[in-house]
Task: inverse folding
């Protein structure tokens, strides 16, 4: 039987909750595409680093698939048009009555980021917008 010196210092340590958890994945190796620090070695991306992209688009009255299923960490949609409205559907084909509507100059950033496919349509031809996302 051990003495008091054999006890864990806290209940959290006893349950193993304050230890360092192993990573869920591995950071990708440094490569030519990774920018280097000024006067230093190449920056090594960490496991949870995001890949950021923007998709400018022009849409008319026919529904287009803007992006297929994707595990997104960020999403921003903006109507850049001067005249037409944009209608977005997340997992369904949108119309003026069943969608997220963005009037001229408006943008949308959801509180939680959808993973299903994103469709878009406009109420007139030549409506422009941009989607910025991180994955």
Result:
């Amino acid at each position: 039987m051990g003495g008091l010196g054999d006890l864990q210092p806290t209940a959290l340590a006893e349950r193993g909750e304050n230890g360092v958890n192993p990573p869920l994945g591995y950071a990708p190796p440094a490569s030519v595409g990774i920018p280097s620090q000024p006067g230093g070695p190449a920056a090594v991306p960490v496991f949870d680093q995001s890949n950021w992209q923007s998709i400018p688009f022009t849409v008319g009255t026919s529904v287009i698939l803007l992006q297929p299923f994707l595990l997104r960490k960020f999403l921003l949609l903006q109507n850049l048009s001067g005249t037409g409205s944009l209608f977005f559907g997340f997992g369904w084909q949108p119309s003026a009555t069943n969608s997220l509507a963005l009037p001229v100059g408006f943008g949308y950033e959801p509180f939680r980021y959808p993973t299903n496919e994103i469709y878009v349509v406009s109420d007139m031809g030549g409506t422009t917008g941009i989607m910025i996302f991180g994955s």
Remarks:
- Residues 11-15 form the longest helix (5 residues).
- Residues 16 and 55 are 45 Å apart (CA to CA).
- Helices lie at 11-15.
- The first strand starts at residue 52 and ends at 59.
